[in-house]
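The methods section describes the discrete structure representation at length, but only in general terms. Since the whole study asks how a given chain folds, the encoding of that fold should be made plain. An entry of this sort, consisting of the sequence and the corresponding backbone structure tokens, reads as follows:

. . .
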Amino acid sequence: MVAGGVLGWTSPILLAATLPELMFAMQGWRRARGLDPDAAKNTEPMTREELSALIQRQG
């Protein structure tokens, strides 16, 4: 139900949707907000120094 709320779907629409429809809709929602999981595959992992700097900035 939470996924339907994020997408702005009503309960009847969500309950009538198939699992692939819901998955494609959520994937599109994530991509529209810059949260593309496929794009993250080609990134380098964070170094310990970068992590320490991030933690210090967040205080």
About this structure: Residues 19-32 form the longest helix (14 residues). The CA atoms of residues 50 and 56 lie 10 Å apart. The chain has one domain: 2-58.
